[in-house]
Amino acid sequence: MKITKEEISQTAVQLFLDKGYNNVTIQDICNELHITKPTLYKYVNNKEELILDLYDSTIDHLVKDTYRLVDSDSHYQQLLIVFSTLIKDTKKYGYDLFSQMFIANLKENRHSFDMRDNLTKLCIIIIKKAQEQKEIHNLSNPEILYQALAHAFTGHEALWCIKKDSPCFDEAFYLSMNALLEVDSTYQDLYKEYL
Q1: Is the whole model's pTM more than 0.85, yes or no?
Q2: Which tens digits make up the pLDDT trace of 2-47?
Q3: How far apart are CA 43 and CA 5, in angstroms?
Q4: Which of 76, 93, 162, 165 has the fewest CB atoms lying closer than 10 Å?
Q5: Are the beta carbons of 134 and 165 closer than 8 angstroms?
Q6: Does the keyword DNA-binding apply (predicted)?
C-alpha cells in the first residue's frame, strides 16, 4: 500500500481534532492508516512534524483562490478576506493544535510562523492599492504594515491559545487592524461582516 506524507498528516490532524493532541500516539496514527511505525517514520520524525505546516495549506488555497479577492468591493475588504480565512482555519484547528505548534516552535524554530512569500507579496500589493484609493490612511511602507499586521495576528492567536476557553480573537484583531492601518471611516465597520 502506497501512502504519502500528506495522507499521514491529514489523518493525524483529524485524530488530533477528535481526541486531542496529547491523547493521540504515533501508534494510534499507524493503526488508523493501517501502516507500521517504520513506514510512518519514513515520512515524519515525530508527532510535532504533523502540525507544523497547518498555515501552509490555508495560504496555498487562499493565494490560488483569488476570485474571492477580485470579487470584493474594496482593497481593504480584500485584506479582510485574507485574514478572515486565516482566522477561520485557526478556529477549525482549534487552540489545542495551535498551542502545540507554538510550543514546537519555541523549543526550536520550525519556521511555522515565518512570512510566506506568496501571501506577503499579495498583501503588499493590496495594501498599496488601499493606500492609493485612500481606503487606509497609514502611508507607511506597505511591507512594514503587512509585517505588523501578521505579527498582530500571531499575537492575538497566541493569547487565544493561552486563554483557551475565551472567545476567538477575530474582533480584537480586526479592531487592531483598523487602528494600525488607519482605516477610512467608510470602511471602519466592514469587519463585522466577517465575524
Answers
A1: yes
A2: 899 999 999 999 999 999 999 999 999 999 999 999 999 999 999 9
A3: 6
A4: 165
A5: no
A6: yes
